[in-house]
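As noted in the main text, all predictions were made from sequence alone. Below is one such record, for Protein RER1.
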Amino acid sequence: MDAVEEPMSAFGAVTAQTNKLSRQYQALLDQSTPHTLYRWVGTGVLLVFFFARVFFAQGWYIVAYALGIYLLNLFLAFLQPKFDPSNEALDNDMEDGSLGSLPTKQDEEFRPFIRRLPEFKFWHAATRAISISFVCTWFEVFNVPVFWPVLVMYWIMLFVLTMRKQIQHMIKYRYVPFTVGKARYTKNSS
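Prediction:
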């Protein structure tokens, strides 16, 4: 009877420790939420360490390329609205025959810009990806020999083409994903 209870208690102990670590990690994430600038500076420093590791080790270009593609994908999701106006335009076109866009006049419905990928999730996913990539640079199995200038040129072309498409989409449906020039209200501004 003791032999049966021992694996269950060992499993229970592992589960309890995993839950405890998960709660502590979530508490750290919750504490870091309001410190946007510091979070991004830390991520930037981690990215510099990663690039320095790749540069000085002269390898792991595939890992760097995969990280670049993943970060580009995250950035595009960060720039896009949660509810794509092009899909709504197609729906409106089918219903009433007119193409819709975001409101531009006083009498149109106001819909605030909501990102498909919120800033905190963008930061968290980017930091986690950079950390994993940095760890991968310490294992020789990930050091696949490639001609790195081709990867750099391909990534630059991919970046330019996808950003051009994203900017055209932003212009066509008239949305700005950044809050540049947003009015700030203080106690005395009545």
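The radius of gyration is 23 Å. The CA atoms of residues 170 and 176 lie 7 Å apart. These features were considered when defining construct boundaries for the mutagenesis experiments described in Section 2.9.
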